[in-house]
Protein: Glycerate 2-kinase
Amino acid sequence: MTENTSPTIVIAPDSYKGRASASDAARYLGEGVRKVLPHAEIVLAPMADGGEGTAASFSGRTITLPTTDAAGRLTEASYLYDEATATAYIDVAAASGLPAVATSPVPLTGDTYGTGVLIADAQTRGARCITLALGGTATIDGGTGILVALGATPLNPRGYAVPKGGGYLSAIADIDTAQLNIPAAASEWVLLCDVHSPATGPKGAAATFGPQKGAEPEDIAILDAGLSHLCELLDVDPSTPGMGAAGGLGIGLTWLSRILHGDDSHIRLLPGAPVVAASLGLDALIERADLVITGEGRLDEQSTQGKVVGTVLDLAHPHRTPVAVATGSVHGEAPAGARVTLLIDTPDDRAQLIDAGRRIAQDYLRTSTVQG
Structure:
């Protein structure tokens, strides 16, 4: 442990959606801390949980190429490719995200084809492992758009191609693999989830996330029935935690990997935040820290279910490292072990976070002085 006048402070926030990226948030919080503790050793470790911006948490070369958005319109999207590990890191939201269709949502017809284009491109560059961050999508298609992009065609009972999107999943009777891109399909798959939701049911992909993707109640019933049918057709367990992430994207990819390898040994569905934390060596950083600062836009019951705040708290607990959380709002009870600081009400995002960092540092200084 360091002296209280020059503590080691690790700053590991999530992004504040629509306000500040994780990197910017960490930097602004650090500026605030520095105003009170000018000699502190500040370690910036911006985090992610499998949502938008997760790919940027890893190292690699940025690849940008034309593809399509969730509505099928031409767009550009980027991903990271690490040649040293032959791994591509792709945010599904980069091509198939909600912002591109926010003014005209496509809950029934939107698909992940554009993400499949990125995957196929990564394989041509030598990628053997595809790491997908599943958060922030506009789609509920069970991953069928990716399947189509990789040459697997969903067919109806008469042998015709099924229209794209989650609204037509119930019409699928078979999937034709005659034109399958086998090198891409045979990749090692790592699916990083920002939620634990199952694929179907009252806590499933359609019921939980359909409304924010523009789905009306009648749409949700169609989508949930379609995902249930797809799981049954492809022999995928819909109750698997995280299978509901990204509109059930893991359903299609689990089947795809299984038909090529015979089992599920080449696909992993993992909570995103712990994987990102491990890549950053966050546990070792927290072990030697006097204080950890984390945060997100809204603190609620999901914050401790695979999200950044919960992951930081879990890592800090065995080391007894204090955790401060900077957040815009608290819904429900604050997580045990977290000292919560609410952001001030101002449209200036930088000022909000600098102020929060300053107040957290003042609180730390006051508490550490009292404790002696």
About this structure: The chain has a mean pLDDT of 94. The CA atoms of residues 170 and 226 lie 4 Å apart.
